[in-house]
Amino acid sequence: MKTVDLRSDTVTQPTAAMRAAMAAAPVGDDVFGDDPSINSLQDKLAAMLGFEAALFVPTGTQSNLCGLMAHCQRGDEYIVGQMAHTYRWEGGGAAVLGSIQPQPLEHQADGTLALADIEAAIKPDDAHFAKTRLLTLENTFGGKLLPLDYVQAATDLAKSHGLSRHLDGARLFNAAVAQATQLAGNNVPNLPQSLTDQGQAAITYEAIVKEACRIAQCFDSVSVCLSKGLGAPIGSILCGSADFIARAHRIRKMVGGGMRQAGILAAAGSHALDHHVARLADDHGLARRLADGLQGLPGVVVEPPQTNIVFVDLVDGAKARGAGLIPHLKSHGVLATGLYRLRFVTHLDVDAAGIDHAVSVIRAYFEHH
Ligand SMILES: *Cc1c(COP(=O)(O)O)cnc(C)c1O
User: Fold this and answer.
1) Which CATH number fits domain 16-276: 3.40.720.10, 1.20.1250.20, 3.40.640.10, 3.40.50.2300?
2) Window from 74-83, 145-154, 194-203, 296-305 with minimum mean pLDDT
3) Which atom number of ligand 1 is nearest to the Cα of residue 64?
4) Cβ of residue 61 lying under 6 Å from some atom of ligand 1
5) How far is CA 69 from CA 17, 94, 111, 221, 245, in A?
């Protein structure tokens, strides 16, 4: 049986159709702005999300860095979640490379930052303080959809204090699928319909793009990863106004992200946006299937997944017994991570049989250890 790799949605292999699109892509030197495949990818996502311009970058980390540095000057400050990628998981790049001070805030249980905490963190104009310049949110955050009314309220609050708003939307389309699903009354079948073709998913492409656009339009800039659930081998895109993207473009060059004939990579991204958006609903269905399959194990607490990430906490006796779980899973062809909590992520290279195998291996472990 092939390995069921649930470590992350970054582990996917490009599909045959994606590889064909890459092989056929027209390319040029993007530092001269000459790459037609990059230009069309940038135009495509900017149009989908309602922005003037966009910038293709190799990674989400670089996309967020270019975004933060395009919003903030040296000595400015951004308000950010304590566990947000742009604070915790990017090597401190905004501070190291941008001289931008983070102001981290604790998350609420639903992943939001309390409006009162945001407001209290905004510094008055006083020589003692860094200049609070930006609010950065992340959606999905830890696999959770931030409620749209919260996103609107938090970004309105930031705007009313003169702050810019940046979204780390690494998994924006997972958020949009969850939001579209909620609007449709959660009427989505539990079994994946298809693992390859968005045409067969329960929520339409148009409905998902509409929700992605509604989320994105609360922000001045949005970063989206192509290399997560969308299944491209590489790449993120930063969207914003033409002026903002011009500043980010200069910073991208400065940090070494000016690539040349990278249209072969952009073609993978365009293919992903055309063919892998609506199928994200399948990943969400598989995450629920995994969560359902793990019910009823003593000491194994499964957080009900809203998107494609399942977190599992071990309590009581299961906590000590859980120590050997990850190596045990690996020896049975199932990969997972447990840096802060046990985490299982679904994606286009996992199917229902793989999830059922993972469930039975996990259940067997706890029943015998
Ligand atoms: C993966 C991810 C990023 C960017 O990661 P890269 O590995 O640099 O592409 C940014 N934010 C979030 C929330 C992510 O999950």
Assistant:
1) 3.40.640.10
2) 194-203
3) 10
4) yes
5) 36, 7, 25, 12, 11
343 pocket-lining for ligand 1 (C-beta < 6 Å): no
Check whether 269 has a pLDDT greater than 80. Answer: yes
314: left (phi over 0), alpha (psi -120 to 50) or beta: beta
Ligand 1 atom at minimum distance from 58 CA: 9
Of the candidates 125, 37, 45, 30, the one whose C-alpha atom is nearest the C-alpha of residue 77 is: 125
Ligand 1 atom 10: the closest Cα is on which residue?
60
String of b and e for 320-352 (b: at least 16 CB within 10 Å)? ebbeebbebbeebebbbeeeeebbbbbbbbbbb
Tokens of 278: 């609506």
CB 191 within 8 A of CB 352: yes
Cα of 10 from ligand 1 centre, angstroms: 9
- For the chain, the distance separating the N- and C-terminal CA atoms, rounded to the nearest angstrom, is 24
Q: Check if the beta carbon of residue 5 is closer than 8 Å to that of residue 332.
A: no
CB of 85 closer than 6 A to ligand 1? yes
Cβ of residue 175 lying under 6 Å from some atom of ligand 1: no
Q: What pTM was computed for the model?
A: 0.94
| Architecture field, domain 279-368 | Alpha-Beta Complex (3.90)
* 77 within ligand 1 shell (Cβ under 6 A): no
